[in-house]
Amino acid sequence: MTMPVFRNLPRSVVLTVVLCMGAGFSQPASDAAAFLDSAYNAAINAGTGAGHVGSAASSAPAPALTDTGSRAADSAGNKSSGKTAGDSSVQAAPSAAAPYAAAVGDTAEKRFDLAPFWGGGAGWSLGSMGLFSSWQQGLPDSLGDLSVVPSGILVDTTTPVPQYRTVTHTLLLKEKPSIYSIYFPVSCAFAVAAHENYHVTLGSSALYMDKRFVGAIRMDTLHEMLNIKETMHFAAVSIDASLNIAIPKRYFAITGVDMTFLSLGAGAFPLAWIGVRNGITLPDTFTAAFGDLKSDIAPHLRSLDAFGAGATWRIGVCTIRTLDPTDGLMVGLYYAGQWLGRFESRGRRLMDSDLNGKAGSATHPVSCVNHRMEVRFLLLKSLRSKKAANDTHEAD
Predict the structure, then answer these.
(1) Fewest beta carbons within 10 Å, which of 3, 126, 255, 386?
(2) Distance of CA 311 to CAs 192, 240, 245, 344, 371, Å?
(3) How far apart are CA 90 and CA 140, in angstroms?
(4) Integer angstrom CA distances of residue 81 from 42, 50, 77
(5) CB atoms within 10 A of CB 396
């Protein structure tokens, strides 16, 4: 007599379930739970595929349960019995590890094919520059800064009888220095130690920037102008070392590049130069009045050369994209810090008052700390032969 729940099932299914349950409950609870799981699969396979084999399936002995490894044996037995019954629609379930393996394959790290390398390029830098800030603070913004009175009496001695005229002076600012301190460094780099997960480079950069002030003093009576110009130049050469550590793609990745690196660098400015130049242009119709005006203005304009040194450090992220087996492009975005000081001019230390005419009797030596943002582009050339690079790519 069978229970109502088994009334509509084939005999082979009922016998298989009963035998499996009897064997399963004679085991410890943990093994019984595992066994019931495999018994359920056996019943389903028997009902769908083995139900047509008659009493042959029901006469099979119950599988022996020895340890937790029996689950794998039971699963294998279930798959093979399903195939024996000739049911081709029952296929092995896909492995749970398959999606994980596919995911790992998709994020596998690409080997850094260009190392070791050398490269050259240029960049763009924006940020503070204390030397120029000090110079700009000392630029004239009124007639008093140039010791020129707003109005006066002009004596014209070109006539038989000297004539006296009232003259009004006006300071015109034609061109103010830019509020942005921008320069375009030119760089080169050489990998002294290279690995697929990091590389150490030695590099050098050269930079130059300038700012200009242009003004004019107009004499309203003569309708003429005396032009004033002052320009500050800065140039420096740096030598630095960088450690670029590969960032695993599972943590940080940028589309379209082969590898991304955390870049740490430090270096020095063995040579830095400051130059200030000025000029005064007289009108075409020169008069003695303009000659006197030039003599009054000249002492208030600066002209100097000074040489110093400094240090630099930076941190940022750079990426490398391979263009062909031996060429690539490195693009980096960095925070760059600079310290500049120890400037000397004509055998003495350069003081703040030398750059800033309004600083009075300030006696502090010129120095500054700059904070800048830099973007750099380097075209890389692998030091390996093209044949070796091609062989490596074919092996990959």
Answers:
(1) 255
(2) 21, 9, 23, 17, 12
(3) 92
(4) 9, 7, 6
(5) 8
Query: If you ran DSSP here, which 8-state letter would residue 351 be given?
Result: B
Place of tokens 């830099």: 374
For residues 94 and 112, what is the distance between their CA atoms, to the nearest angstrom? 35
User: What confidence tens digit (pLDDT) does each residue in 285-343 have?
Assistant: 656 667 778 888 888 898 999 999 999 999 999 999 988 888 999 999 999 999 999 99
Query: What predicted TM-score, i.e. pTM, was given to this entire model?
Result: 0.67
Below-70 pLDDT ranges, the chain: 1-113, 115, 152-159, 163, 165, 221-223, 284-289, 361-362, 385-396
Domains of the chain: which residue ranges?
4-89, 117-395
Q: Tell me the β-bridge partners of 235.
A: 208, 273
The DSSP call for residue 365 is B
**Amino acid in position 307:** F
- Give yes or no for a contact between 103 and 314, defined as CB atoms under 8 angstroms apart: no
Strand 259-281 and strand 304-324: pairing? antiparallel
What's the start-to-end Cα distance of the chain, in Å?
Answer: 67
Encoded amino acid at 33, one letter: A
Taking the C-alpha atoms of residue 38 and residue 32, their distance in angstroms, rounded to an integer, is: 10
Asked if residue 45 lies in contact with residue 17, where contact means CB atoms within 8 angstroms, the answer is: no
Percent helix / strand / coil, the chain, rounded to 5: 30, 45, 30
